[in-house]
Amino acid sequence: MMLDTNPTQPLIYLDHAATTPLDPTVLDAMLPYLSNITGNPSSLHRAGRTAQQALDRARDTIAQVLHCRPTEIIFTSGGSEADNLALKGVAFARQRQGRHIITSTIEHHAILHTADYLESCGFAITRLPVDTQGLINPADLRAALRPDTVLVSLMYANNEIGTIQPIAELGQICREHGVPLHTDAVQAAGSLPLDVEQLQVDLLTLAAHKLYGPRGTGLLYVRRGTPLQPQIHGGGQERQRRAGTESVAALVGMATALQQAEERRAWYGEHCQTLRDHLIDTVLNQIAGASLNGHRSRRLPNNANLSFRDIEAESLLLLLDQHGICASSGSACSSGAIEPSHVLLALGLPHEQAQSALRLSVGRHTTIEQVDYFLDVLPKLIAQLRSYSA
User: Fold this and answer.
1) pLDDT tens digits for range 54-88
2) Are strands 358-361 and 149-153 parallel, antiparallel or unpaired?
3) Tens of pLDDT along 117-142?
4) Which residues fall within 8 angstroms of residue 263, CB to CB, at 6 or more apart?
């Protein structure tokens, strides 16, 4: 564990894809439900009714953004639970119709590990490949669909490389075959449209903490008529689809954050894309052996994923942290071993290049001065690390 050598140094936060800071106005909306309004939404007394009314308003606000019915929204503890509910819920509810599920090789682990579990339960899983830029070929989806396919789950935008999938086109193919489509839209929210009718999806996952909302809160949109078996039992909450007392304050915060993100989406995209392109262009022009991972233009406006020849990303992250810069790696640490990102390997990158990947994600409050500071520090650290192996 690295000690914080300068805790008073201002941080330059370039890891918004991991989580975002809580917006002050979101906190303000939550505060009454953390202090004065303490009722359980399932209770019949006045305090309970007040809490239930707050949940109803939050659900209505979210439904307006998603262009769906409020009753089609299930509140969850976050994106991972929502992904689990989508896959297991539909798979087990429809297993008499078939036991085949389609997903992709670059999904979030909440999807991949759930698919692995379902495979251990006897379901057949098809994992679609992607091209070198992370895009799914719609023809591959069409060819993979079978009479026993009961669900397709393909993410809207990738959390590591930012590549945006043609979800509406993929959704149309699924509708032609009568197969529900789930999309993990956790990274897309706030940057891309979330109209479930235009996207032609039947299930959609969101998480509040990617939207300047509270952690530990999410939702699953489920189109009316889509079979779904609950995965958490014990109560009749969420129309008997997800047991557990709802966190009123957090859900009010998520609704506020989503509404704000939708209102600011055009500004946010322009702001982030300007910073992103400046960052990418400068790195590729000034650092030898640097390469961009993911699609150059069909990517989230705040995402830059870059690899550096002869560099290990973990070492680079530690040095960046010492300079007050928060970033992320394409690698995951498991049992003390550094493993290359499954997403980057799926693009066809060699292990060495995948292990050198740095994910940088700007946000609402990122400034050009902060990006320029990073761009000033980065080449020096790259040269320093390369000198060790020379």
Assistant:
1) 999 999 999 999 999 999 999 999 999 999 999 99
2) unpaired
3) 999 999 999 999 999 999 999 999 99
4) none
Q: Please check whether the domain covering 265-389 is classified as CATH 3.90.1150.10.
A: yes
Domains 24-263 and 265-389 fall in the same CATH topology: no
CB burial class (10 A; 0-12, 13-18, 19+) of residue 221?
buried
Cβ-proximal residues to 215 (8 Å cutoff; 6+ apart), any chain: 19, 78, 208, 209
Residue type, 278: H
Q: Residue 308 in 3-state DSSP?
A: strand
Task: Return the H-helix or E-strand segment holding 28.
Answer: helix 24-34
Note whether 155 and 107 are within 8 A (CB): yes
CB atoms within 10 A of CB 318: 12
CB 264 within 8 A of CB 272: no
**Residue ranges covered by each domain of the chain:** 24-263, 265-389
| pTM greater than the 0.70 cutoff | yes
Rounded Cα distance, 343 and 366, in Å: 26
For 314, other C-beta atoms within 10 Å of its C-beta total 13
- Sheet arrangement for strand 303-308: 290-292, 303-308, 358-361, 328-329
* Catalytic machinery residues: 333
Say yes or no: domain 24-263 is CATH 3.40.50.10490: no
DSSP for 213-240, written as a single string: S-SS-EEEEE-TT-----SS-SS-HHHH
Question: 48, 245 in Cβ contact below 8 A?
Answer: no
User: Residue 151 and residue 91: Cα distance in Å, rounded?
Assistant: 7
328-329 and 203-207 strand pairing: unpaired
